[in-house]
Amino acid sequence: MTNPTPRPGVMEIEPYVAGKSALAGQQRVIKLSSNEGALGPSPRAMAALAAQAQTLHRYPDGGAGDLRAAIARRFGIDAARIVCGAGSDELIALLTKAYAGPGDEVLYSQYGFVMYPISTHAAGATPVMAPETGFRTDVDALLAKAGPRTRICFVANPNNPTGSYISAAELRRLRDGLPAHVLLVVDAAYAEYVSRNDYSAGVELAETCDNVIMLRTFSKIFALGGLRLGWGYAAPGIVDVLNRVRGPFNVSSVAQTVGVAALADLAFTDAARVHNDVWMPWFAARVAELGLEPLPSVGNFVLVRFPAGPRDAAAANAHLARDGIIPRMVGSYGLPDFIRFTIGTEEEMRAVVASLSAFMKG
Ligand SMILES: Cc1ncc(COP(=O)(O)O)c(C=O)c1O
Fold it and tell me: How far, CA to CA in Å, does 54 sit from each of 80, 256, 260, 326?
């Protein structure tokens, strides 16, 4: 007798390890492990959630019409080119399954978001990693690895966990250098936090190229990770493919209604951006003063390098845990000397700096 066997590639998946949210023996924790928005959800989003309770017996709008219209309004883009998903994770998985399979290659950057190789294995395709230079996506390295078997190239911009980004010109150079048959996925999960004038989330490329999709999420600046809501913006051909492979009701009615309310609350996302503009550089500067090495970040998180020896990343993590603080270890990214810290509230960031300070001086 043989047991049911998954498709090739599935057992090669290193299961995704989510940011921890609890510590044994600690009642109150400071959770800075998943790049969730520091201020929590918009009050308008929370009010919409309560109102939606009355109609939970109804199936959602399978086409997410109101939500796509609200996204289109907010970002000044075409609703017909938008497709919504249960988080951008779902869209990453659907794209990989739709465009790649056994014998195909999927390209991503060395420290790129870990869901790219996971989804590639799940599709039975082969992940191909291009080395980074200075913890930044290297366009030339990606182009050097692209070939006839390449089906997809994933770029997180800004990237998680490094916090680095590539300019609009570099992104354009990447797209222009890739063979036309390669789908370029520009994953702009943290776009709203970026205030560099040479940055683009990828809207123009998605609007003008038949082989580009931009992905966005409600999990970061909108602080709605629990809702599972993301969206893609692409040429009609790519949107059509996603609409064929997604579940008919992949985005819940709750997610649609709350998403529309969150989009309308401009003041809330402005406040979240201003908060990050203050506390991200503040945290990076304090960490540097302690003799640690924060990598330059344009997101709502900072990757910090710890020295080898008694004050290494593992020891720091254990010390922070004793103080009830949960950052994110990134050994699974090949970065065992680093810890990633999400930017939380002022109180949380002051507590982290106090804990790190005691650790470094202790
Ligand atoms: C670069 C990047 N892409 C996508 C995601 C997934 O976001 P979502 O919650 O929309 O699935 C994350 C979440 O951490 C991320 O960092």
Answer: 29, 15, 17, 37
Query: Is the minimum distance from the CB of 230 to ligand 1 under 6 angstroms?
Result: yes
Tens of pLDDT along 205-241? 999 999 999 999 999 999 999 999 999 999 999 999 9
Give CA–CA dist 357/362, Å, rounded: 8
Q: Is the CB of residue 221 less than 8 Å from the CB of residue 277?
A: no
> Tell me: the pLDDT tens digits for 314-348?
999 999 999 999 999 999 999 999 999 999 999 99
Q: Residue 1 pLDDT more than 80?
A: no
As assigned by CATH, the class of the 16-40+267-361 domain is alpha beta
Q: Residue 360 C-alpha to ligand 1 middle, in angstroms?
A: 32
CATH code, residues 43-264: 3.40.640.10
At 15, the pLDDT band (50, 70, 90 cuts) reads confident
User: How many angstroms is it from 230 CA to the middle of ligand 1?
Assistant: 9
Domain range list for the chain: 16-40+267-361, 43-264
Eight-state DSSP code of residue 133: B
- Is any ligand 1 atom within 6 A of the Cβ of residue 37? no
